[in-house]
Amino acid sequence: MTGDQGHIGEFDRIARFFAPLAEGAPGAFGLTDDAAVLPPASDGLEWVVTVDALVAGVHFLPDDPADLVARKALRVNLSDLAAMGASPRGYTLALALPKTLPATADWLEAFSRGLGEDQAEFGVHLLGGDSVSTPGPVTLSITAFGLVEREKLLRRSGASVGDDLWVSGTIGDGALGLEVARGRLFGAYSDLADRYRLPRPRTTLGPRLAGLASAALDVSDGLLQDAGHIAARSGCRLVIEAPAVPLSESAAAAISDDPDLFARALQGGDDYELLFTAPVECRSAIDASGRDVGVSVTRIGRVESGTGIELLDRNGVPLEGLSEQGWRHF
Amino acid sequence: MTGDQGHIGEFDRIARFFAPLAEGAPGAFGLTDDAAVLPPASDGLEWVVTVDALVAGVHFLPDDPADLVARKALRVNLSDLAAMGASPRGYTLALALPKTLPATADWLEAFSRGLGEDQAEFGVHLLGGDSVSTPGPVTLSITAFGLVEREKLLRRSGASVGDDLWVSGTIGDGALGLEVARGRLFGAYSDLADRYRLPRPRTTLGPRLAGLASAALDVSDGLLQDAGHIAARSGCRLVIEAPAVPLSESAAAAISDDPDLFARALQGGDDYELLFTAPVECRSAIDASGRDVGVSVTRIGRVESGTGIELLDRNGVPLEGLSEQGWRHF
Fold it and tell me: Is A252 near chain B, with CB under 8 Å?
């Protein structure tokens, strides 16, 4: 480490912080070669690939702990794999760091520690990467790789009229958590802020839904907008029963205090739950899949003919203020 | 397009500029899903993966034409695949654009046009991507995918004592071209600047060398430093005959005018030629491979026992001023 405000050269960065994350992945060659080799996919399996970029000040707060930044970056990609029904196997990392980052070694230590923790939790390895300097903010992109059975790939386009609409976990924690993290929502809601900072990708549920669900995606733009994506790609109408949308205890308490927050919960992003459609005859199999992997699954509506989405109140009456682009206001 | 200095929303950016680049890749699903599917690798083939990040002001000049930026970003990745002996098949893109980028639509149009031109030239397709805003400079990372025969993968670690040392094309054009581009080297050397701005990855030669070469990499850090990488990974000494290093006409002319530029040619980066070792009995096969694909290949030295690298003058006398870390001075 030189006196250059803790700046560390590329080779040192790789050897100290990243090569240990490639241990256990033979095709990564300890990050010493020009490229990595993906393990051969077994018969009938296909590689699924996804990429997400995150920028400090845009996708996370510049002073967010580096280990949480790393884990969030990895998890949003694992969520995309889960949405396709794929089991995660590995990832590559491109990291642009400001030379002026204070205490670069500490930041990288925490960043790589966060990746290591999630590698253990999700069974993935770092396969390759590039680490560069930037005069701008911390910027990282992760490309993640997973395997799916060729015939069971989940897409956004398979919903059929008559299917149920389901969602995993709870909705709105990410959006309300961002309000808490920004100091705009007060109360004993630190669990919501944690949900915003550290999504829980449904990596075990997604592959279980492959072969059952007719269409799926992960809720990153907000429940209503993402439901609109399935509707648009599948050429149908998604009807959502508002009272059926599952809320966490904290989100329900916050909304009870301020009912306007319900709209925020439905239109906010960063849920990283799976939103999916499935034939009615799959209900018990889906319930069983959720139980097996310990993730709640809730039926929140149905697929009808038409276009766009519709949100119904407790009396089955359409709520106003909704457009295909998402929620406007109640 | 809004009045926000030409800022274009993510969905529009994808539909207008990037989805057309995914046509012809069935597994990209028109960039409408959460992830893409790699085509199944035929029996005996493996997927090779590499990633490179580029930042405006660090890896390219902020006012470099966007089409050249795009093509360079793609090509440096294709060069990494070639160094492993892999044939390129596709790539994903993460792009962070300043909202204040003047004429964003024009920039994106040129950027995607550049990618399209190189897709046609190299037979690859865009498989997926992410497009985000940044308060910093243009930042992009590309993850590229190629296929190689499982048993023929080229690595940095396979050189044996007695092997020849070879290099493709010409050395120093990238480094001298950067001097031209920066206005520090004057003369009729616009072809050198072109070489700096637009590398020529040896995508057809690399796969031909798979099964012949014992070790390989692409010259991105400079001939001497990259030779040191092969030496270090292979546990041997690389001896380079300075007069044998192939120079382009322009580089030779520039060096004839200013002999100090020879050191710059050997230590500068951005050549993106293949540096490789091979058993003596492969000489004619390697010459034939170069002829077949229209890329010159030149023997520039040999592998000896020991460590590090050695540069010999025309009389076979070691040149001073060299260290394992690269060239210092003559």
Answer: no
| Yes or no, beta carbons of B46 and A38 under 8 Å apart | yes
Q: Computed from CA positions of residues B266, B267, B272, B277, in that sequence, does the dihedral angle turn out positive or negative?
A: positive
B53 and A95: CB-CB below 8 Å?
yes
Rounded to 5 degrees, φ, ψ at B97 are -115, 135
Chain A from 131 to 150: CB within 8 A of any B CB: 131-137, 139, 141, 143, 145-146, 148, 150
Among B31, B131, B143, the residue to mutate for chain A (most A Cβ within 10 A) = B143
Chain A residue with minimal CA distance to B138?
A136
Answer yes or no: do B156 and A33 touch at CB < 8 A.
yes
* Contact at CB, A35 and B57, closer than 8 angstroms: no
- Nearest-Cα residue of chain A relative to residue B93: A51
Strand partners, A151: none
Q: With CB atoms and an 8 Å threshold, state whether A48 touches B37.
A: yes
Q: CA B33 to CA A322: how far, in whole Å?
A: 24
Q: Spell out the residues 6+ positions from residue A184 whose beta carbon is closer than 8 angstroms to its own.
A: none
CB pairs under 8 A between A and B: 193
Q: Which of residues 45-64 of B touch A (CB under 8 A)?
A: 46-55, 57-59
Tell me how far apart the alpha carbons of residues A74 and A125 are, in angstroms, rounded to a whole number: 11
Contacts of B48 in chain A (CB under 8 A): 35-38
ipTM of this predicted structure = 0.88
pTM of the full predicted structure? 0.90
Q: How many CB atoms lie within 10 A of CB A273?
A: 32
Distance of CA B14 to the CA centre of its chain: 27
Query: How far apart are the C-alpha atoms of A129 and A18, rounded to whole Å?
Result: 8
Pairing mode, strands A139-149 and A87-98: antiparallel
Sign of CA dihedral B46, B146, B216, A32: negative
Please report, as a single letter, which amino acid is at residue B143: T
* Out of B81, B130, B157, closest to residue A51 by CB: B130
Do B68 and B117 meet the contact criterion of CB atoms below 8 Å apart?
A: no
Q: Measured between alpha carbons, how far is residue A187 from residues A179, A180, A193, B63 in Å?
A: 11, 8, 11, 49
- The amino acid occupying position A275 is L
Give B27's contacts in chain A (Cβ within 8 Å).
Answer: 46
- Scanning B157-216 for CB atoms below 8 A from A yields 157
CB contact under 8 A, A37 and B153: yes
Which amino acid is located at B148 in the chain? V
B13-29 in b/e form (b: 16+ CB < 10 A) is bbeebbbebbeebebbb
The per-residue pLDDT string of chain A (330 residues; one tens digit each, 9 = 90 and over) reads 223 334 567 778 888 888 899 998 888 888 888 888 898 888 889 999 999 999 999 988 888 899 999 999 999 999 999 999 999 999 999 999 998 776 788 999 999 999 999 999 999 999 999 989 999 999 999 999 999 998 899 999 999 999 999 999 999 999 999 888 888 888 878 889 888 889 999 999 999 999 999 999 999 989 999 999 999 999 999 999 999 999 999 999 999 999 989 999 999 888 999 999 999 999 999 999 999 999 999 999 999 999 999 999 999 999 876 544 444 433
Q: How many CB atoms lie within 10 A of CB A190?
A: 12
Nearest to B83 among A34, A46, A135 (CB): A34
Q: How far apart are CA A214 and CA A157, in angstroms?
A: 8
Domains of chain B as residue ranges with CATH? 10-33+41-150 (3.30.1330.10), 164-318 (3.90.650.10)
